Task: inverse folding
């Protein structure tokens, strides 16, 4: 089985904006391999997962998670409760995640830039 290794680096402190029974919202900035992404992630029991990414104007813009490998990695970190990325993770601390390459290729999500 072929794997994709993804290096995650925390660039700013994770800020939890809301942590309720059916809704979790946080803001952070991380690096997925060499791509810096500043974002707000929402996991809502009723509305599903949403990701807003800072655009070139510095505004948060809701994007389609399924269209981009890096956005899927962010969703994975929060929906699978990756213990290596949380409030206590230090700034500039990095860790590796491994993903099944075949799955991402079959879904048509894998980009050349991973």
Result:
């Amino acid at each position: 089985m072929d794997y994709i290794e993804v290096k995650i680096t925390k660039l700013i402190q994770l800020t939890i904006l809301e942590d309720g029974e059916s809704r979790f919202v946080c803001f952070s900035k991380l690096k997925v391999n060499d791509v810096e992404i500043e974002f707000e992630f929402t996991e809502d029991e009723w509305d599903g997962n949403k990701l807003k990414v800072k655009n070139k104007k510095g505004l948060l813009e809701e994007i389609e998670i399924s269209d981009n490998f890096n956005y899927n990695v962010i969703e994975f970190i929060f929906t699978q409760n990756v213990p290596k990325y949380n409030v206590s993770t230090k700034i500039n601390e990095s860790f590796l995640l491994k993903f099944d390459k075949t799955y991402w290729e079959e879904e048509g999500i894998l980009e050349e830039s991973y």
User: Anything to note?
Assistant: DSSP finds two helices and seven strands in the chain. The longest helix spans residues 69-79.
